[in-house]
Amino acid sequence: MTELPDGPVIEVTVAAPADAVWAALRDPDLIRRWHGWDVEELAEEIRTIYLNGVTEDPVARTLEINGGDRFTLHEISDNSTVVRITQAPKGSDPDWVDYYDDITEGWWTFLHQLRFAVERHGLAERRTILFHGVLADPRPILDAAGLQALRAVEPGSAYRAVAPSGEDLSGTLWARRPSQVAVTVDGWGDGLLILADQPVNPHRPEGGAMLLLTTYGLGDPHWEALKERWGAWWEKHRAPDPLP
């Protein structure tokens, strides 16, 4: 990511033709296969972000959403496309100024979800679990989860680790930035785990943590066991709710 006068620029290079990536950004059925996580409001969130009131140019493959954040696609070969988001300047939308850094972090997460879903799974159906909030352990999420060894792994390199849930993890380090790490997980049907430290803002004065698990092809028993293991760890380690 680089800082420009307009705002942060976040980009990824996706190993796919520009037309395929553009379709993944415009078809709501495809967007739900990479954007965010499973919640009842996902379809409405997709419409709000990517469809309602946007300005798009399918020929130039540009998309400007409400608030002024702008997607541009740049085909650098027949099977390689740069997806770039230029964020609107901070303060351009007063309703979201408190969450500006959260939006920047979210775009990074979403772009790497897009790249992963397109490159590794051809936008197949997925299952996701999200845990987020404040942990009792004030250290960064990698330390709190016992995965600090991932800091020494280079993107594209293999890793092995024991998850906070107790299961063995293996795969490759998919991407990283100072506040987030994404790793593939072989045992989740070639899934994706993103660990993130959430920014401090007026509504979250101590910051927070996020674990986002994406899985493919797991049978119901395996899926339910996975949710139970990670949910048990999260509930044990999250900070108590503040007193009213």
Question: What tags apply to this protein structure?
Answer:
2 domains; 244 residues; Alpha-D-Glucose-1,6-Bisphosphate, Chain A, domain 4; alpha+beta; six-stranded antiparallel beta sheet
And the CATH topology of the largest domain? Alpha-D-Glucose-1,6-Bisphosphate, Chain A, domain 4
Q: Helix and strand succession?
A: EEHHHEEEEHEHEEEEEH
Mean pLDDT: 95
Judged by helices, strands and strand pairing, the structural class is alpha+beta
CATH superfamily of the largest domain: START domain
Question: How many separate helices?
Answer: 6
CATH class of the largest domain: Alpha Beta
The N- and C-terminal alpha carbons lie at a distance of 39 Å
- The coarse silhouette is globular
Instruction: Indicate the percent of residues in helices.
Output: 25-40%
Question: Order of strands side by side in the largest beta sheet?
Answer: 1-2-6-5-4-3
DSSP summary, beta strand count: 12
Domains counted in the coordinates: how many? 2
Query: How many strands, what sense, and barrel or not for the largest sheet?
Result: 6 strands, antiparallel
Approximately how much beta-strand content do the residues carry?
25-35%
> Could you list the spans in which at least 5 consecutive residues all have pLDDT below 50?
none
Taking all Cα atoms into account, the compactness measure Rg is 18 Å
- Known CATH architecture of the largest domain: 2-Layer Sandwich
InterPro entries: START-like_dom_sf
Organism: Virgisporangium aurantiacum
Protein name: Activator of Hsp90 ATPase homolog 1-like protein
